[in-house]
């Protein structure tokens, strides 16, 4: 834990007291989104101290040219990144002819932020004394509509406390924005058109290179004590990329002046005419009005929480942590559009470019499968199917593979590889395995096999071809090996025979071959169509199988464990407990050379394999491998603690499981990795959900049935969650005395609890 200023609360994230040192962290933590767009919790008014401005639109990106010291063949030409979108929230404010800026106020008191996760809004309030002596009370509420997902709403209230005040509002929309992480400090937005109306304005701009067109809009209403005073702007200032209106008002001491601002984006992904689309959005939002929009927001979030909430009794910090994670996941991805995916930072920052990683398949899909309609998870799979041609092109053009072998990109927006670190881009090839595993996991959980003959089998074939060509035969070992890779543990690069990579490669080939046979038997027309399309022969499949059947796995017979890779035991095996805390995190304290030579593990690696393929190993094997590798794991990846929590629970190491749960659930709230100001760790938040449902709840799917091995941390009085399993809603509630299973509906559901079958109906109690 590196920060502890967020107040414990079951349903809200709360900060009290103004501290300029916390501003950027809070901008991340109080971010809001609605699946179509999102923004950091930047102040609407001017703030002259350090801040990280960020608003983002789903699917809008820019190919920023790769910047390296020298070029190597195979480097991706660019690093795609989500763009800091035009600013629609800005409202410059003058009070008695002085600019409102918390950095220059004489005093700021009673400062409070609240992110209300239950109802889906962000609120900021404070009292301030300006240099001119005017005292004011301010309350600002902001939300991004789930129903009208191209619009956001701000209500900014100002009450003068010690004198009458002339208040000037200067709302604006501005396309002259830049990214924090631009490689070449280029401009990403080209202004096209500015349109001004009575109380509304529009700036249309398009991205350079990718030519996404976006209209950023605003509509302003000025109120006194809650009543619209129908004032028009006194002046309108505009440039090629910015429009700013000025509204002057006078309000008596103790009375409240307000501006309501509707704003947002319409994009060419969804509109042929973005300006006409923006005008239509404004018309819909204005017709509803602020109160109705807020009420609709509350009701929309109530529906989300009805299915996705996890309750924890007796541990407020744990409860706050899981709800924060679930809230951010639902803000980031709604599942409506198969062109979209989930970036590691979501809408909270620019690190990782907002692109798609293997995090989606390995960690996020289980959450969306269980808490949404299965179509949402299927859309995530379809995203990869639609990019199969690009994956084949990536393997061919960048690595020299042939005959339809597919390497999915490590980082992507549109299917092209856009990650520019060689040791990650072309060595962390295990991401192919996660994409194949997600297809298996989807079928295992939903029972929907149709995706495989329709789309998934082509993906599996491309991936199997890649592994067949990527492996090489070692005469010394008389087995197939995979050389020069980086496993999930990115603290080792260019190593040979990473256990996880080799294991998932073998599994991918075996699974692809099995599905080819199943589709041939049950979907002969699809089988014929696919094999003709990809030119696959029985002889080629046999060649694959030779590699899978003879894959090499490094082991230590003495320790009874799989080795993370060849030579792991040659390292100086000093456990983490003996590492000086002043040296943590090592990725910020040590040279990369020292990190690579150390035994320290960034995230679950061998144990990631044990997590995916738990049924392939005995409990004793898991115990030996877990205890060995946990002692060297520094968990400096957000994706690590959840896997360790799940496995610790499976091994009845409940104190450890609880500690890891707190770390994953409060990773950002408590800033464990000293980086939250860059944005929140969105994709790992799904691992927090897994830590409870699969860890403490012990949920597994085996032979088309749900299995549970429920346990409860001693720190909790009870917990509950819901899952949608094959279109049946099951609620599970666990306390120290009993576990209850409740089915929502008339149809019974057979489940396995602690190895024994039971019939779950409207209410089933297990003592």
UniProtKB/TrEMBL annotation:
Q: Which NCBIfam families match?
A: PRK13807.1
Q: Example GO biological process term? A: carbohydrate metabolic process
What range(s) does the Glycoside hydrolase family 65 C-terminal domain occupy? Answer: 699-758
Glycoside hydrolase family 65 N-terminal domain residues are 14-268
Q: Which positions in this protein are listed as binding substrate?
A: 358-359, 602-603
Q: Which positions are catalytic residues?
A: 490
Q: Which GO terms describe its molecular function?
A: carbohydrate binding; glycosyltransferase activity; hydrolase activity, hydrolyzing O-glycosyl compounds
* Alphabetical list of Gene3D superfamilies matching this protein: 1.50.10.10, Glycoside hydrolase, family 65, N-terminal domain, Maltose phosphorylase, domain 3
Q: Which organism is it from?
A: Flavobacterium cutihirudinis
All residue ranges annotated as the Glycoside hydrolase family 65 central catalytic domain in the record: 323-690
Q: Which family does it belong to?
A: Belongs to the glycosyl hydrolase 65 family.
Please name the InterPro entries in this protein's record. 6-hairpin_glycosidase_sf, 6hp_glycosidase-like_sf, Gal_mutarotase_sf_dom, GH65_N, Glyco_hydro_65_C, Glyco_hydro_65_M, Glyco_hydro_65_N, Malt_Pase/Glycosyl_Hdrlase
The protein depicted here goes by the name: Maltose phosphorylase
